[in-house]
What we know:
Elements: E1 5-9, E2 13-14, E3 18-19, E4 23-27, E5 30-37, H1 47-60, E6 70-74, E7 79-82, H2 109-116, H3 119-128, E8 130-135, E9 138-143, H4 146-164, E10 168-174, H5 180-194, E11 199-204, H6 207-219, H7 221-224, E12 229-230, H8 234-242, E13 249-253, E14 270-275, E15 287-288, E16 295-296, H9 299-306, E17 311-316, H10 326-331, E18 334-338, H11 340-346, E19 352-356, H12 365-377, H13 384-393, H14 395-401, H15 404-422, E20 430-434, H16 437-450, E21 458-461, H17 473-476, H18 479-490, E22 498-501, E23 516-520, H19 525-532, E24 545-549, H20 554-560, H21 566-572, H22 577-594, H23 602-606, H24 609-625, H25 627-649
Parallel strand pairs: 5-6, 10-17, 10-18, 11-13, 11-14, 12-13, 14-17, 19-24, 20-22, 20-23, 21-22, 23-24
Antiparallel strand pairs: 1-4, 2-3, 4-5, 6-7, 8-9, 15-16
Amino acid sequence: ENNSFVAANQWTFIEHAEKRPDLVIFVNGMPLVVVEIKSPSREQTDVSAAYRQIRNYTHDIPTLFQYNAFAIISDMATTRVGTITSPEGRFMEWKTVDGNYENTSFASFDTLFLGMFAKTRFLDIVRNFLCFSKENEGDHKILAGYHQYFAVKKAVVSTQKATETDGKGGVFWHTQGSGKSLSMVFYARLLQEALNGPTLVVMTDRNDLDNQLYTQFAKCKDFLRQTPEQAESRAHLKKLLEGRTANGIIFTTMQKFEEQDEPLSLRRNLVVIADEAHRGQYGLEEKVDARTGRILHGSARVIRNNLPHATFIGFTGTPIELKDRNTREIFGDYIDVYDMTQSVEDGATRPVYYESRVVRLKLKEDILEQIDAEYDLMAQDAKPEDIEKSKRDLSQLDSILGAPETIETLCRDIIDHYEQFRQYELTGKAMILAYSREIAIKIHQQLMALRPAWEGKVKTVITGSNDDPEGWREYTGTKQDKTELARQFKDPDDPFKIAIVVDMWLTGFDVPSLATMYIYKPMKGHNLMQAIARVNRVYKDKEGGLVVDYIGIAWALKEAMNDYTGRDRSRYGDMDIAKTAYKKFREKLEVCAGLFYPFDYGAFFAGSDLDRAHAIADGTNFMADSLDSVDTSLCKHICPQRYAPDLNSSDEG
């Protein structure tokens, strides 16, 4: 109440030019928000025109934006909010006033203002949900989406309660690509104040994931008001925990926790943030070592024993499996759910389409049966010793899938599909997911043999080991090499277009322009859903991502969807391109046809060649005469049509 809030209508600002934004909101004299609203009665203007005007303001009256928190653009039908570094696609609607996600498909004009501008909430957003991330090209100002704001607030309350009760902070499920890592950053910031400076231990199950998440937090260290640290070993982790009584954000992998009689720390102000919390990582089961007779505890039990008084919270991009009691046993129930349907509706992610090309490899029935056995080995309740035995039994599958004639057939079809349908899709970025490191290298070599001109366009990103053959070194590379490859692949203009991977880059790795994934590796469950989410990121003119199947994952996709929400199952339970993209294409086509009313184009279909020529000319003139009134609407629907044929024709159906 001690702050001054003023909304100035048509406020004139003179700098390089004289401009008059529709609305400027001042707090204590500082212009924190600029609002640009276009009239819904003028068909030639829309929310995109409002965005362009905001961008022009930043050049014509840049001083106005020195204190800017965020900007709002609207045409009364659609109202979005973003920062001065946000591309138009990242200006998002604020769809709820109270955090309820029901009936948010179409938010009304005033929902954003009611949801963001209650004085206490507005100040909370500016203080705790607006951060700078230091990127190679400069600082990016990031504003939390409505789903992140309300979910993080819930997570903090849940954590506070858990510290006083059973230590189960809950599970935060926000679908892949909707900003989970940044939600963790906002959560870490808010929790520091809410719990008087707890120490946060951020845990993953792989080194590359640890590095990715650590890097995201490090980019936001000013916002977090502390520099995160990475534990290099168990001893180092123990030292980092012992060396402080409060504060600190420590990153570690779960492998650094071992069965010990002495805990790593007995402190109570510890919060363990587990990334991608699911049963496979954090098991509770006890097993007996056949050699020693010693009882081996599940990893969750080990971690609990190492940090007996800590509070645990899980963040995940995929749902807890229905049969999974372990995750709930460790973390508790869901805190917040932001499902696939909501994410796509909000424009936070794009839909993923599926295309099967398994038949083109002409795999024999016995090989397909072995692949089915591989799926069985990946079953969530398989014990490590069962998995190792199955892998030995299935060792010949690697040689079968890696047979020269099979690899050649695979590569020829990938080349054919890519060159016909995907090469000019957005920036042409694609990913090939191989069964093993050896097969990844074989695919790379075969592609080079078939397309020598693709040198530099195709690169392999795999881990290395001390036992690797000498010739593999050029493919495994160093840690620095992989960092540079990641930079190149994320750059839309870099000539590196096709990445061949096995396990790397399948979680926590964002390339918004990536539109295509070719899968030649059996996968299921959360691993499959995390992998295909690489192509669901938002990018200019991107209607969706495409997964091309060469190994038979269709049933695994449908099975994985059983754990998702009811509306997710209804909408995305069958991602087959023939049933999804074509329907979307027809819908857009009908809208485009309606824009030609009252022009009669029937002669094009029923007349002679001359009649068709006249119809084309007359239609062109009709469009030209109506350009001012239909231009905006036409572009909205014709531009997606530019990409829909690629999705539809690739199915050849």
